[in-house]
Inverse folding.
């Protein structure tokens, strides 16, 4: 089953390769303000619809009033756990300059782990997502979202489609990176390929 799905993956990659590479290239060209929007976006995505989260970010940024009440009203109809995420966003505005000063760290794994520990609302997955979305992941880290885990399980890369703990995250990440190397498809591109396979589009 895994090998059959792997062949399907190669076929899909050959069709989507150009669009995926362009999307990755777009991430590398973001302005600072666009990077900040990705920073907020990745705070909102856990257990929420990515498109609605992006709509929320756009609305927050376009709204002159960025009070707690206003941000909460925007998030309430678009994300789960909107009260917590309102606090994350407010904290994100306060701490962006400090976070931004850390982004030149060339050790991507170290930077990702630091972000996961120091950004309210981030774990390993969200920190990885943010770095990929601003073009800094360099194929060294993995966004272990539900769609990734499902695909890795169906391809027989991992035995279960869930993460037990932090140590397990790193183990699955290593398996995913090895699989990417075996297929010859960079891990950043594989992530977008899996997303496209499940949703029919290349998004974030």
């Amino acid at each position: 089953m895994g090998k059959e799905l792997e062949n399907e993956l190669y076929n899909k990659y050959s069709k989507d390769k150009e669009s995926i590479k362009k999307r990755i290239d777009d991430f590398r060209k973001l302005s600072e303000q666009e990077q900040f929007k990705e920073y907020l976006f990745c705070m909102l995505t856990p257990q929420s619809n990515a498109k609605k989260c992006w709509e929320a970010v756009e609305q927050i940024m376009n709204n002159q009033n960025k009070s707690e009440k206003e941000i909460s009203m925007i998030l309430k109809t678009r994300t789960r756990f909107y009260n917590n995420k309102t606090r994350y966003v407010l904290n994100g505005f306060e701490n962006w300059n400090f976070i931004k000063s850390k982004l030149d760290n060339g050790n991507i794994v170290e930077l990702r782990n630091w972000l996961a520990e120091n950004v309210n609302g981030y774990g390993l997955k969200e920190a990885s997502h943010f770095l990929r979305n601003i073009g800094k992941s360099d194929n060294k880290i993995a966004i272990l979202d539900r769609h990734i885990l499902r695909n890795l399980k169906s391809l027989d890369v991992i035995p279960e489609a869930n993460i037990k703990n932090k140590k397990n995250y790193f183990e699955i990440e290593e398996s995913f990176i090895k699989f990417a190397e075996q297929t010859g498809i960079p891990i950043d591109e594989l992530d977008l390929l899996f997303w496209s396979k499940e949703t029919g589009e290349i998004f974030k």
